[in-house]
Design goal:
This protein has one domain. The chain is mostly helical. It is about 70% helix and about 0% strand. It is built from 4 helices and no strands.
């Protein structure tokens, strides 16, 4: 069931908000491909926990570079997801949804004890 956007959001503002969210999704795709490329080029396309741990804990500069590329691309993917969540939570395009109850709502709840 979809709801119409709130009346206070004009057509231009709605389009701008939708474009902003679309850019975050494009960013995820770009950085996901970069992450796959980093794993392919630096770890032969397969990266398991033991190989990651060994390279990450290594004192060798080459291993530091290999892990930093993968870590950077992974962080970029996660950051884009976080930005989508933040934008969606504060967006007039979507109804506000509380992910966790606030302290005031717990105090006023009849079941709060």
């Amino acid at each position: 069931m979809s709801e119409d956007p709130p009346a206070k959001l004009g057509g231009n503002a709605l389009a701008a908000e939708q474009a902003r969210l679309a850019r975050f999704f494009q960013t995820i795709g770009k950085h996901r491909k970069a992450l796959d490329l980093a794993i392919e080029e630096n770890f032969g396309g397969r990266l398991g926990p033991a190989e990651w741990r060994s390279a990450f804990q290594s004192a060798e500069p080459h291993d530091a570079n290999r892990t930093m590329v993968v870590t950077g691309d992974h962080s970029a993917v996660l950051n884009a997801y976080v930005e989508i969540l933040k934008a969606s939570a504060g967006s007039a395009c979507f109804p506000t949804v509380a992910l966790t109850p606030s302290r005031s709502s717990r105090r006023s709840s009849p079941t709060a004890g």
